[in-house]
Prior knowledge:
Order of helices and strands: HHHHHHHHEHEEHEEHEE
CATH architecture of the largest domain: 2-Layer Sandwich
CATH superfamily of the largest domain: Histidine kinase-like ATPase, C-terminal domain
Strand order of the largest sheet: 2-4-5-7-6
Amino acid sequence: MHPILAYRGRLGPYLAAWVPLAGMLAALFHLVVGSTWPESIAVAFPLSLVYAFVCLAAWYPCRSASLSAAAFPRIVGTQLLAAALSAMLWLFLADTWVVMLAQVPRFAHLDERFPRIAPVLLGAGVLLYVLAAALHYLLIAFESARRAETQALQLEVLAREAELRALRAQIDPHFLFNSLNSISALIAADPAGAREMCLKLAEFLRESVRVGGATSIALGDELALAERYLAVEQARFGARLRAEWRIQPEVRGCQVPPLLIQPLVENAVRHGIASRLDGGCVTVVAERAGEAVRLSVENPADDQAPAAGGAGVGLANVRSRLAAAYGADASVDARRERGSYLVTLEFPLRPAPAE
């Protein structure tokens, strides 16, 4: 669609730009023909308004002979031909309008003086059309640049979404692998506990599938999902696994990528609780830090023990998903300190949308 007519806010400024041109045309009539100012204004302003709309048609030759695709001779030839045709049309309309005005007693004999201004009007029509064509070339270049920018942003968003989907897809097989190993280890020692763990695992997977397809979920829902995971593992570890939750109410509505905390809690159980005879406590803390949320998962760790095996998929996944979702506004810190292993996430505080 025409770049000026497509937007309501552009037509007004465009027509307003023709007002000083109409004033210059009235002054030209007054000087060349010797017409009075009322006669000059009565001729110049209606003609300028009509020619403003005629010049809108310059968009079509500008598109057919674009600066990026057409050869220079073709551009010049097309625009000169369009300018000549537009100016002659304007001259015809002007002659018709002057003849009509001459029927009014106040403007009598105006048509007899019009031939003196016709060559000047023809030249002005060509010049005004060329200016309108230049304006349309600028608008076309602006629209092309905006479309290119929009397409680039859309591609960036699609790439980011694809990255998030790929990272999220790593969670399910990683978790299932560890859970099935836990069930396998429990079957021989405690068949009833293995059955209970299977039921809780099914409940957890059903809930994770429900929220896993969302772009983001409330932090409170994400924490509830982590509690379900710990309930699965408690069927295996019993009293050896304890959990402590310290969650500030104001951060529960913050939006986070789904299944973000579960890998951290899983690592805390697998590398912290499972390796200790007396087990331990997994502590999850979520609090507001200015305009950000600080979330930490802490588990007991033996400073003298060798590093636990594993490919580090969980923590790497969390780092990548936070970077993809928040960029440089998010951070992940993992370290051992005073007999414990602490992972701290910090990301922007984003309230949950209203229902």
